[in-house]
Amino acid sequence: MERKNVKLSRRQFLKVSAAAGVLVGTTGTASFISQAMAEPKQVDPKINYVRTTCSPNCTGACGMKALVEDGQIKSIIQAADYPEPEYNPRGCLKGLSMTNLIYGPDRVKKPLILKGKPGSGDFKEASWNESLDYTAGRLKEIADKYGPESIGVLFQVGGTGYVQKGAVSRLATLAGWTMHHAYDQNGDLPMFWPMTFGVQSEELEPREWTNSRYVMVFGSNILATRIPDAHFLLEARNRGAKIMVFDPNFSPTASKADEWIPIKASSDAAVGLGLARVLIEEKLYDADFIKTFTDLPLLVRVDNGKRLKADEVKDLVKPSDVPTYREAYVAYNGRFIGVHPEKLDLSLDILIEGEVDVPLKTGEIVKAKPAFQLLKESLASYTPEDVEKLAGIPKDDLVRIAREMAGIKPLHVIYGAGNYQWYHGDLKGRALALLPVLTGNIGKAGAGISTYAGQYRIRFKVAEWWVPEGKKQNWLPFLYVLHGPTKTMKAKWPKNGIKALIVGWGNPFDQHNMANKLREMVEKEELEFVVTTDFQMTTTCQYSHAVLPAVSWYEKTELVATPVHPYLQLQQPAVKPLYEGKPEFWIIRELAKRLNPDFEKYFYPDLESDEAAQKVIELLLKTGGPAVAGITLEQLKKGPVRLKSEVPGGRQIPFYEQVQHKQPFPPVSLPAKIEQTAQFVKSGRIEFYKDEDIMLQVGEALPVHKPPFEESEYVLNPLTKEKYKFSYVTRNAIYRVHSTHSNNVWMNELQEGKPRVWLNPEDGKEKGIKEGDAVEIFNDRGKLTVYAILDPGVGLKQAVFEEGWWSRYLKGASYNALTYPFIKPTHELYFVPGMWSPNTAWNECLCDVRKVDDIL
Ligand SMILES: Nc1nc2c(c(=O)[nH]1)N[C@H]1C(S)=C(S)[C@@H](COP(=O)(O)OP(=O)(O)OC[C@H]3O[C@@H](n4cnc5c(=O)[nH]c(N)nc54)[C@H](O)[C@@H]3O)O[C@H]1N2
Ligand SMILES: Nc1nc2c(c(=O)[nH]1)N[C@H]1C(S)=C(S)[C@@H](COP(=O)(O)OP(=O)(O)OC[C@H]3O[C@@H](n4cnc5c(=O)[nH]c(N)nc54)[C@H](O)[C@@H]3O)O[C@H]1N2
Ligand code: SF4
Ligand SMILES: [Mo]
Question: Domain 4Fe-4S Mo/W bis-MGD-type: where (predicted)?
């Protein structure tokens, strides 16, 4: 098909953008916007509106309507058809200007096979048959030589496409390939969740934000990274909520807060612990809540730091109905009580402070203390004076904030990705979780702790489609591919390592750390084959041996449900696949039958791929469990349908059932089975004390503050301590969704096409750097050249870079060449894919900056 001009003019675009801007800037505008976005009165019969879903990795999943004329998308507008008017409309400028990508010059039009060296851009165009035969042939050779598990499969967030990504999972499972979960690969897995609550992650739905009255945002840039929901935060403020933003940098979100508290980078654990100390010292905590729902009353042996088990204690027995993946521990209220992990019925006269002598079955007497007592002792190192030194927050402010937050309910803590993407992100999360838990702000409207990143939580059961019956999947955290295996890893390292990669929905050769190493691995043929499906010619495509043209989300059928706004939505094709692009389902089926003729039957061989996708959606709705029960494809064709929930009003309030109905922790995290995740919190309670050996060894039984770099960069190379003084903080850009829209001309115009680094003016002065200068950000691993912005809102000794630029905008360099795949040993304690797994820590990276003559 010939490319025709898309008629949406810049003026029209700006009109739409202005409306979307209002959405973020004010509240109560929903009806105004709905009017502005309403269909024109005189509808040309040649114009067709197709309701679909914008579905990049930002997981906003905004309902959109494509205006289609003569088989071309002329423009995209917000659908504004959610049954709850508060959710209308959703969208951002990227989504509205998606036609720039769909019809853009970087579109992959035909299958490509690499002719020259990887990265050379020397490809030959091939027919689908040739490219599929070639790809299947190479994959078969590699599987025969090294075993099928040496083929790694990378694909992104399940929630943005249950059908097409499911097809990839289905084939990977049949073929015995190794899957890499996107959650930890992206660094989005907040490890404090499984450690503390036993779940993958949880969050309040944004509509619930307006019920909060005290909101503490720790490094989450909602105004830039949750654009369609940002208005709920502002509305909460209009309704009287106090918004407190803790961020080393004056972010757009900080600019809308009641207070911005600039803290030192990666000092959040100290802040959380300092606040917790005041709550405990001044008895501002909810004692009944912590006795009922947490492990804080459970006794811990003083001699070995282990939690006391009921089985150990004289005259106590472990109840016979305790499942093997849980444990019965002990509490004390004048006598010793065995605490059943599935019954949250501990008496409220239970001891939480002090020390007791415990007679053991062996005849020994040991000393034990409730975990609360140990926490209190440990918090003694976080006095307001200490925290002022560690985090830079004035001591009086700390005390004032602690008193304030304890007095105003509901309290909601938002913990952002930029903040947990540090080596000790788990410790920070465990410390921050103390705030809502100590004050009893869990399982209630407008209350809790949330992480809004990645949004990998799948919303319903997918096994029927994703995992062919009776088959097992191989999983390997992607960090090991770069870092190499470790002695302590629980995941299984393929005996010959990873020799080939199958990539979809991602651009790891820009977006993953050691992106340069990945390139080197291809150049040196350590990675013998890479095949990528994308609709755009990304850096990853440039380094691939075969590029298979996929289609954008306006050209195929898909089912979408991300956790942010809890709606199930269809992606319906607005136009036929452009050029020779094909939906992944089609590509996978073609590959499957070439790999093994027996595989074809798993992919609806008699149906055209969009029809097959609809069949898959029906299957998922039928077998997806309670969240989708009763929802039909026909209903979805008419518009979005809210997922079901047990919470009154169908709301998404984490741990509602645990707290209101005293159910043991954790709730199920799909697709894992309860026995896989309940082992994370064996007490059946919210756990702050972790007594596994590795936790005791590294001094992290309780949440503590550990400064950045000491267990990462300085161990890797002690010289870095003197050599590199800047933190390389890579936040997400409002102009892109990671590297998607990197090449969107309108978005680039807004940034003058310039990759930039934000520096504090004092640092600029010291380095002789002025606003607009070309500067190099570098360390021993890599470098990139960008333009300097001197901003007093940026904390000292930080080089803040907005990630996601394709390397062609960085003179071929990868901004991720500087970062390193550190693996924290406590993340290797269990392995449940995408739930307890080594997580990437982008910001744990040292660098320096220097002025250079120019960029070109
Ligand atoms: N427009 C847009 N939206 C997106 C995305 C996108 O690329 N573009 N990506 C989506 C995805 S996949 C994700 S994961 C999310 C991520 O979105 P966020 O969770 O907002 O993460 P970041 O943008 O990395 O960083 C947020 C803030 O963390 C601060 N920060 C960094 N280090 C620390 C620290 O140690 N302590 C504290 N308190 N703050 C710190 C930074 O200064 C920054 O203001 O956004 C999603 N939404
Ligand atoms: N240094 C540093 N690195 C980071 C981060 C950071 O903060 N700092 N953030 C990390 C985070 S949180 C994330 S989530 C990752 C994201 O990194 P990636 O997952 O690699 O995300 P994108 O760069 O958006 O790449 C998505 C690709 O999918 C393609 N695509 C879109 N739709 C489709 C489709 O329907 N089919 C196919 N086949 N392809 C499609 C797009 O064209 C695009 O090339 O980056 C991580 N990298
Ligand atoms: S890019 Fe994200 S926030 Fe913007 S319209 Fe698309 S889904 Fe919504
Ligand atoms: Mo992410």
Answer: 47-106
Residue nearest to atom 8 of ligand 2 (CA): 730
Q: What's the gap in Å between 157 CA and the centre of ligand 2?
A: 10
733 lines ligand 1 (CB under 6 A): yes
**Can you spell out the DSSP letters for 505-542?**
S--HHHHSTTHHHHHHHHHTTSS-EEEEEESB--HHHH
Mind listing the pLDDT tens digit for each residue in 496-543?
999 999 999 999 999 998 788 899 999 999 999 999 999 999 999 999
Contacts of 686 (CB under 8 A, 6+ apart): 196, 197, 293, 294, 295, 433, 437, 442, 665
Give counts: helices (H), strands (E), the chain: 34, 30
Residue 69 phi, psi dihedral angles, 5° rounding: -135, 135
User: Is residue 677 in contact with ligand 2, taking CB distance under 6 Å?
Assistant: no
Level-2 CATH architecture, domain 713-851: Beta Barrel (2.40)
Q: Regarding beta strands 529-534 and 546-549, do their DSSP bridges make them parallel or antiparallel, or are they unpaired? A: parallel
The helix (run of H) or strand (run of E) holding residue 559 is strand 558-560
Stretch 416-445: mean pLDDT, rounded?
97
**Domain chopping of the chain, boundaries:** 10-102, 112-189+460-642, 713-851
Strands 474-475 and 178-180: parallel
Q: Is the CB of 562 under 6 A from ligand 1?
A: no
Our answer on whether the CB atom of 839 is closer than 6 Å to any ligand 2 atom is no
What is the best residue among 53, 57, 807 to mutate for testing ligand 2's pocket, by most ligand atoms within 8 Å of CB?
57
Does the Cβ of 160 fall within 6 Å of ligand 2?
no
| Tens digits of residue pLDDT in 486-496 | 999 999 999 99
Please list the residues that pair with 244 across neighbouring strands: 216, 259
Q: Is 738 in the pocket of ligand 1 (CB under 6 A)?
A: yes
Residue linked to tokens 């705030």:
435
Question: Residue 43: what pLDDT?
Answer: 59
Q: Within 13 Å of residue 598, how many CA atoms lie on the same side as its CB?
A: 3
| pLDDT number for residue 17 | 39
Asked whether 736 lines ligand 1 (CB < 6 A), one says: yes
Is residue 722's pLDDT more than 90?
yes
pLDDT digits (tens, 9 = 90+) for 582-603: 999 999 999 999 999 999 999 9
CATH assignment of 112-189+460-642? 3.40.50.740
Per-residue pLDDT tens digits for 2-45: 333 333 333 343 344 333 333 333 333 333 334 444 444 555 66
Is 645's C-beta closer than 6 angstroms to any atom of ligand 2? no
Please state, as a whole number, how many other Cβ atoms lie within 10 Å of the Cβ of residue 11.
Answer: 8
pLDDT for residue 576: 96
Q: Which amino acid is at 380?
A: A
**Mean pLDDT in residue range 145-163:** 93
Report the predicted TM-score, pTM, of the whole model to 2 decimal places. 0.94
Q: Are 358 and 300 in contact (CB under 8 A)?
A: no
Cα 7 to middle of ligand 3, angstroms: 21
- Convert the pLDDT of each residue in 748-777 to its tens digit: 999 999 999 999 999 999 999 999 999 999
Q: Give tens-digit pLDDT for 215-251.
A: 999 999 999 999 999 999 999 999 999 999 999 999 9
Q: Is 221 in the pocket of ligand 2 (CB under 6 A)?
A: no
* Best probe residue, ligand 2, of 517, 534, 560, 816 (max atoms within 8 Å of C-beta): 534
Residue 159 has a pLDDT of: 84
Over 70: is that where the pLDDT of 184 sits?
Answer: yes
Measured from the alpha carbon of residue 506, the closest ligand is: 2
SS3 state at 57: coil
705 with 430: CB under 8 angstroms? no
Ligand 3 contact via 784 beta carbon (within 6 Å): no
The whole-angstrom separation of Cα 419 and Cα 415 is 7
Atom of ligand 3 nearest to the CA of 93: 4
